[in-house]
Amino acid sequence: MDPKTNPPGSPVASGGGPLQTASPDRVNQRCDSVTAALRAESRDNSVHGKISQFNNLSVAMQSKQLERKTADAALKRAMVGREEAEAELRRFKDEMRLLQKATQEGKERERRVGERLETVMENYGRAKETHAHTQALWEKEIRRARKENFTTQSVIVKLQEELKTARNAVKMLEGTVEREKERSRVRENEAFTARYQLVGVQEQLQGALERIKVVEQERDAFRAAAEKEEVARIAAEGRIPLPKAEDPNDEFASPRKKTTIRYQNSADARLSLTTMDLASSASSEMEIEELTTQVLWERQRADRGQEMVDFLQAECQMHCCPCTKAKQLRKGGILPQKRRRRSFECPAAAEAEIEEREARRSLLPAAKPLQIQEPEPEPEPEPEPEPEPESEPEPEPEPEPRPVKSKKDPRRSTIFCPREGIFRTVSEHEAEAMEAARLSPPLMT
């Protein structure tokens, strides 16, 4: 290939120059340099041609110039390649630094991401454990809450049952209270009736006491009349006794005569009397005995009535009256004592029955010596005025059974016998037996 036809900056024109890959920038620079060289060469060629044409230079001079131009082009190419290589080297170094920096940054990011991942995994593990523990606790709490709910529901059911039973009990108690109120009203009416009857009994007792006073006055009058009759009879016989001594231990007083002697004297005196005197003395003695018996009986009845009143008052004060006992017996499920209440509900009928039984007992021979043995010597004519002091202490045997009732045996109780019309002091067993005997007939009927 002819070097003249080739451009001076081409690699073929340079002869044995190095062949290297050219980058786009280098190619652009080469193209610029080639175009500049062609232009310069075109100018130079035109000048040289003109010079050669005008100066007729030789061919040797032209070859040397051609070699010089080729060397200059090769030098320029070498310089351009070096510059391009240095630029590429700088660029590669910059790229390598950038890549190294990016690699370091990537490693740093990877390390940070790894640390963060480890931290996150640790937190995740702890959170998982905490969640499992919390879930177990919540499950326990849920089971406990369910159990408490079940127990609460069972307690609510029990409380509802208890409330229902309590309401039923309240209703029953209200009914019981109403019945007790009715009973209390009935008891109040009975108590009012009993008080009214007690007032009537007290009035009857006052009337009986007044009758007793009247009977005592009549007795005193009969006694005075009997004394006058005895004095008249003794005066008629001619045996007037000495006046009674005030002091029984007086040594100047007349000696007392024995009862047997008086009885004999009285019998002798009666034998000496006429038939009228005997009849009058016998009738007066019988009347005096009857009056004395009636007075004693009325006194006993008055004492019994007063004792009964005191006993009823004490029972009411001590809350042992039949009303209180009836309430207690109702609470215990025992029937009240109806017969005893009936005896107090009709005092007039009871009084009439007592009088009839007393009259029957007064006719019995066994009852007379118990109360009339001591006052028998009173109507005797012989003992001048001696029967009078004997008739005064007649009520002395009455207080004798009183201390026996309460002081000697505190476990005994005094009860009223409606059949006999008297009070009797009996033991607790006897009283219970008598009460059972009283209650048995109405229960069987």
Can you give me a brief rundown of this structure?
The chain is mainly alpha-helical. Helix content is 76%, strand content 2%. Residues 375-398 have a biased composition (Acidic residues).
How many strands in all?
2
Number of helices: 11
Largest sheet: 2 strands, antiparallel
Strand order of the largest sheet: 1-2
Shape: rod-shaped
Helix content: over 70%
Strand share of the residues? under 5%
- The radius of gyration over CA amounts to 81 Å
* Helical/strand content category: mainly alpha
**N to C succession of SSEs:** HHHHHHHHHHEEH
Q: How does this model look, in words?
A:
The chain is mainly alpha-helical. It is 76% helix and 2% strand. Among the domains are: 24-122; 399-445, no CATH class. The protein has a two-stranded antiparallel sheet. Strand 1 and strand 2 (422-426) form a beta hairpin. The model is unreliable at 1-19, 250-255, 257-279, 334-347, 364-410 and 441-445 (pLDDT under 50). Residues 75-102, 156-225 form a coiled coil. Residues 1-10 have a biased composition (Pro residues).
Topology:
Elements: H1 24-55, H2 59-237, H3 259-272, H4 275-317, H5 322-332, H6 338-345, H7 347-363, H8 368-372, H9 387-391, H10 401-408, E1 413-417, E2 422-426, H11 428-444
